[in-house]
Predict the 3D structure of the following.
Amino acid sequence: MMTKNALAMLLSRLAVFEQPVARLEQYPTPSDIAADLLWEVRGELIDARVVDLGCGTGILGIGALLLGARHVCGYEVDGSLSSLVKRNLDWIDEQVGGELGSIGEKFSLVIADVTKIDSLEADVIIMNPPFGTRAVHADRLFLSKAIGVPVICSLHKTSTMDYLAGWMEKQGHRLAWKKAVSFPLKATMDHHTKTRQMTDVTLCVFTQV
Ligand code: SAH
């Protein structure tokens, strides 16, 4: 059985965006934050069908597989990331050495715009969606795709949390757990002037009422 520290350690060694695209809000989730969120739903992840919306480098989906998910489908609009995801899957398989079966074989990457997909079949949805600072309402649009799934794990700007939780409640999803964290927005993007800017983010687990 994987410990939370071992999970965070493995995730910390995955490759991140080489040239993050500001328009797509490509901010990687720090490994300790990813481990915190996934650990909270570890019971629900066992043998689960998981969907990772805006999967980026694959970190959240890979973490879910390390905790025993049956399958992960990662949706990502930026097709240029597929080699990075593949590299991360190959690397993780080398590390865990087939103990959990091949992680790579359990992860399907779908290159698609999440805001345009229809319904999803999943037991658990995980996402670090665009916070909606560049693409307005991207956060709520991502959440809207998860409606009807029993467990939804997401990260949101703390300033938008109350609004989003209220909206989710109306759709039949209660905020069951939350944790405030400080999230680094790295200054690899040209519209940033500071080297490292921190934002208040809340980790959320929504369950169906
Ligand atoms: N899940 C990763 C990446 C988070 S950054 C992690 O936790 O580290 C947000 C991701 O969503 C980026 O990879 C970005 O390319 C992707 N994204 C942004 N808009 C999208 C859209 N409309 N459809 C699918 N993916 C999108």
About this structure: The chain has a mean pLDDT of 93.
